Each structure stands twice: as structure tokens, then as C-alpha cells.
Amino acid sequence: MKIETLTVHAGHSLNPNENEPIVPAISLSTIFERAEDGSYKHGYVYTRASNPNRRALEQALVELEGGKAAAAFASGSAATLAVFQALAPGDHVIATEGFYGTTKLLQEVMKPWGLECSLVNTSDLAAVSGEIRPTTKLIWLETPSNPKMRVSDIAEVARLAHSAGARLVCDNTVGTPILQRCFDLGADVVMHSTTKYLCGHSDVLGGAIVSREEDAFFQKIRMIQAVAGAVPSPFDCWLLHRGIRTMSLRVRTQSENALAIAKFLATHRAVEKSLYPGLETHPGHDIAKKQMKQFGGLLSFLVRGGREQALRATQGLGLIRRASSLGGTESTIEHRASVEPPNFGTPENLLRLSAGIEHVDDLIADLDKALGKV
Length: 374
Ligand SMILES: *Cc1c(COP(=O)(O)O)cnc(C)c1O
Prior knowledge:
The chain is α/β, with parallel strands linked by helices. The protein has 2 domains: 3-244, 3-Layer(aba) Sandwich (Aspartate Aminotransferase, domain 2); 247-371, Aspartate Aminotransferase, domain 1, CATH 3.90.1150. The protein contains 13 helices and 12 strands. The strands form 2 sheets. The chain has a 7-stranded mixed beta sheet, sandwiched between helices. A 5-stranded mixed beta sheet has the order 8-9-12-11-10. It starts with a helix and ends with a helix. The structure holds pyridoxal-5'-phosphate. Pyridoxal-5'-phosphate binds at residues 75-77, 99, 101-102, 142, 146, 171, 173-174, 193, 195-196, 205, 207.
């Protein structure tokens, strides 16, 4: 079935009994009764290990990405941590210079644990292959990258990873399963911060790992999920599963809005540069066109001047909200350098904008008014 159909129905056909509710119930019980013979008819024992709402969400994620197995977590960061913890001390990881949280997790948590890590601009294939070592077990790819909007070639990086005997994991948070089919392009594992486009309403924190195969590596992630216990609540799973039903409509509109905004910003006199893979001038445009259906709802731009001008541009906004995160129905804008450490490398004049589903004319009018005061 097509992705638009899957977003509505995936994970909803687990109990095809007659007269079942169409909208699933929220199963709050932490414990499940054994049969007289000691067995558990549905496999549920204790909700840290599994729960009907989590299982339905995981089934939906499997169907949406086209994988074999999925594990839902309490946040994207917890999902990311489980992947790294499924490796062994002494193993080496190559990761995209992208989302600050993943970088910090690698440097401050996994490095002391014994994981070796190289952070590179993965849109440069020579830079990726130059970092491959005999101990390289995993390449962590984030494309488009947050917030610099760099595009990496998933199929080419998959080839590099596999020729080195390493796995390719794609952080598909910004790409979304609607626009970017990572398994078709050669990825072994897909990670999501479901907080963003899958939830879509800025009211649930969540994460997920989807695996192309239900192999030993995935089993280890599943074990970490149950044993370490960074699991989402039944209500969060239910909300996420509900949010997914409208994802294809949201992401399509967000992508159209982001493209129109990026084009508007590209020619605005107060803007130095508009960073969006959908622009023909973007260095990753051809690759993005090859591996994405549309170019997504996230964009960044450099305000002419520096930090002061960038902050001033956000002050004049009346509709676009000054807030972190991305993927909600409402448009949000963030000065990333303010929330990252000074040496992280995000330009002081960069603003990241998450396009919502409002009418694009209203969004552009808001930006035009605010940029006019810079
Ligand atoms: C938000 C985000 C994460 C982290 O997810 P949380 O749900 O905030 O823990 C990871 N990767 C990307 C690209 C993100 O945008």
C-alpha cells in the first residue's frame, strides 16, 4: 500500500475481532494476568517490556518505514543512546556533524564508555571514507542535517559502510518516512525523534528505532529498551499513533511552505543566504532530488549581519513562534547558536525555521515585516 494509506491504517489492524473499536483504547495497566497454565496469551507481562499501545505504535513504524522490527523509546535521544550502547567499547563510529544533542551524547556519554567517534561532514564522501578504520562498526547519517541543512548521499554512504563491514543508521527525523525511504537506499537501521513530524503537534516526546532485519543487533536494542527502561507511556504511544494518521498531509504542506519561504528568503535584501535543499542553488539539491520526494519542512537562513541582526529578525515576528524543536503544525523559529555551545560551529547569524501548515502568504508576510526592521 502507498504511504498515505499506511499513515492512516498502519498498526490499527492488530485485533481484527468483530465489533472492535476503530480507535484503540489506552491500556494503562502495568501488569497482565497469566493463564492458569502460566502462559501469557498476548505476550504482555509487564509494561516496561511491552504494552498493547506500544506494540501497535511499533507495528505502525515498521509498516511506515518498510522494515522488519521497531522499538519505541521515551525520546529520540534515548533511541539514539540504545543504538550506541548496542555496540561494544573500542568500536568506532562515524557520525554526521549535525544535531547538537547526538554530538553531545557521543562526546560526553559514549566516549567515556569507550566508544570511539569521528564527527564529519558526511556530504563529503572522501571525508567519510578517510575516517574509516578497521574498528568502524557504524555510520550515523543525518540528512538533511539539523541546522546546517547539508545533504548526504544515503546510497553512497551505505556502500561505503557496507564495504567496511559497518552498519548504516539514518536519523530520518527531518527526512520523514513520507519523503525519504532510507531502507530502499541501503540503510540498515532508521532512527526517529518521533517528537517532531511523526507526532506533529508539539505535545509528545518520543523516539524510535526501526530495523531492516530482525537481527542480533536489533535484538540487542530491544533488550536495552526493556532492561534500561527508557520507554514511552501508553498515552504517549497512543498520541503518537494518532498523530501519524495525518502525517502525509502535514509533511506535504510543510514542504510546500518551506520551499516557498526559502525562495522568498533567497532574494530578500536582509538575508545573506537561504539554506534549503529544495533550492536549485543548494549544493545538495541534486542528491536531495534523487533521494527525497519533497524537501521537507525545515530550513535555515543567514541574516545579513551577525547575532544582533538575527535576534532582531525574530523579535519582529507576530505569527511564527520563537521556540525550539520542529515538525509541529505551527511554524517556529530558533537562533540555534543561543542553545548550542560557542565552539559548536553554527553561525551566529543563522536562524532555523520549521514551517507549519498555516497559509504560506501569512508566514511570508510575517517574515517580511520582521526582516524589514532588521
Ligand atoms: C530532536 C532531534 C533529535 C533528538 O530527539 P529528542 O526527541 O529531542 O530526544 C535527534 N535528531 C534530530 C535530527 C532531531 O531533530
